[in-house]
Structures are given as C-alpha cells and as structure tokens.
Amino acid sequence: MLNEVLKILEEDARRTPDDIAAMTGLKPEEVSSIIKKAEEDRLIVKYKAIVNWSKLQDEHILALIEVKTSPEKETGFDAIAETIARYPQVNTLYLVSGTYDLAVIAVGKTLQEIASFVTQKLAPLEGVQSTATHFLLKKYKEDGVILEGGEENRRQSVVL
After folding, report:
1. Which domain holds residue 102?
2. What pTM was computed for the model?
3. Tens of pLDDT along 78-92?
C-alpha cells in the first residue's frame, strides 16, 4: 500500500488522507500513518508545486551544467557531489553516465549570475576537470506535466 499512496501523492500532493483512503480502500488514519512514516524515513522529502514561470514577469534563468570530475579514492563522486549540492544556485544534481560525470541544474536571475557561479565557484573546485554549460531556453514539460497547450484536446474530429 505504501507504493500506491506514494504514487498518488507524487501525482498530486494536495490529495488529502480522505481522498487517498477512498482511492485505496484504506482508512484515513492508516493513510495518515503511512504518510507520516514516509516523511520521517525521508521517502517523502518535499511537497512542491510546478510553476510555469514564463507566464510571470519574475522569470529566472536555468542552466544545465555538465561537470567532468575525478572520483575520490574512498568516496567516488559522492564527496564532490555533496560539495556542489550545497551551493544555493544548484537546483538539481545527478550522477550521469557518458562523457561527463555530473549534471547540474542551476538557477539564477541572469546569464551573468550563472556564468559567475560556474567560473568562480564550480570550475575552480578541486577535482573538477571541466564543465559545459547549456542555458535552457524554454520549458515545454516538467515532471510529466506539459506546461503550455497540453490541456486541450489534440485529437482530430471525426466526421460521420
């Protein structure tokens, strides 16, 4: 039941224990208990809203930064990843396969702010061999949600 409750919350974090109970056949108290335990165990680490920032005047710049690094003897990539994750500009951080080792999603108010983060903070870190920065120009889909034009019916009409 835990997986089912987590999938429901992942799809819509505003679902109440009563809603989830009706969907799963559990009692609301059981759902509340499952959620509380999942939060304590850090299975649920955050609830969030997906915001289409392009519709507001308060847009921000996102960049995908690929980082090539050398793993450390005892910790592999974990130590450098922990250091990078602590920067406030870092929104998301992944260990990836391929030419680069880490993929960083960074956020800033301007292109210059992100460039400054890369050149003054990220690239000089011990163990960082190189970086490649890609500025994200437009978001079409985030966390499985199409941001614009996704709600209308895109099927062609059938004329009988």
Report:
1. 56-138
2. 0.76
3. 999 999 999 999 999
